[in-house]
Specification:
Helix content: 55-70%
Distance between the termini: 45 Å
Largest sheet: 5 strands, parallel
Strand order of the largest sheet: 2-1-3-4-5
Structural class: alpha/beta
Number of domains: 2
Radius of gyration: 19 Å
CATH architecture of the largest domain: 3-Layer(aba) Sandwich
Order of helices and strands: HEHEHEHEHEHHHHHHH
Length: 225
Amino acid sequence: MSKVEVENGRRKVLVVDDHPIVRQGLTQLIGQEADMYVAGGAEDAAGALDAIEKLQPDIALVDISLRETNGIELIKDIKIRHPRLPVLVLSMHQESFYAERVLRAGARGYVTKEEATERLIQAIRQVLSGQVYLSDRMASKMLSKLVEGRPGTDGMSIERLSDRELEVFEFIGHGLTTRQISQRLNRSIKTVESHRANIKRKLKLQNATELLQYAVQWVQSEKGR
């Protein structure tokens, strides 16, 4: 059977993840399905945008943690350049904290890498059909938040941070200096210092030591969940 015949009628998936092993595993997993296949992959935002132009995928599967930028910023860029392309986030980060952020950025669903493989396939099909995919627990939480008209209490102080401030906060928690963060984000040191000041203000932290301690504790708690 020719490649053209195999791909005929199957939906094209683009995988954006900075780990080659993950991309390879997802290619094999998705390739087993009769209605979809991985048309290509990318390890960073620039590569993802280039691949979208060349491959014209039906859906983009995007991780939050990418080289040089994060998936949330990439999702925003995709929605500006390709508003009709659905994006599904597949990430190691906790859904309870990031799901609402990625939906606001323009994604159509969120799946954690810990979930069973059948959940991922279900999520892809659901998003391709025009629906939003979240776990039952997260969907219930967001509905309760909407009905009760109040912010969720889980990580409420961190939720005050903008997407960029959260990215800086996470870098701080991983031990990066202001200069290193500026290089990773391709932003000036002054801009990063401004983000740090805003983070301290929003989290009611008194100094750089408290900021570092809080950021390290938060990163460790995220890994431990």
